[in-house]
Amino acid sequence: MRLDKFLKVSRLIKRRTLAHDAAEGEKIMVNDKIAKPSKDLQIGDIITIEFGNKIVKIKVRSFEVSTKKEDASNMYEFVSEEKKEI
Q: What is the pLDDT of residues 32-64, one digit of tens each?
């Protein structure tokens, strides 16, 4: 599944266009490498997302074409969250 679609379906980022723009702006890394929106994800990949003043790491657990709000968090496992140093 594409990175931008995964972020949207898992509800980590609200819209696919926002996920696309964040990846293009080098705010998202997959396995410690800057990732493009079209990056093909695999189960077990570690995604690092820079949200303003915090950095969130998650691990991909599964892929769903669409999901309900309650089930979206089953697509990933929270790894860590840290404040970004300015």
A: 999 999 999 999 999 999 988 899 999 999 888
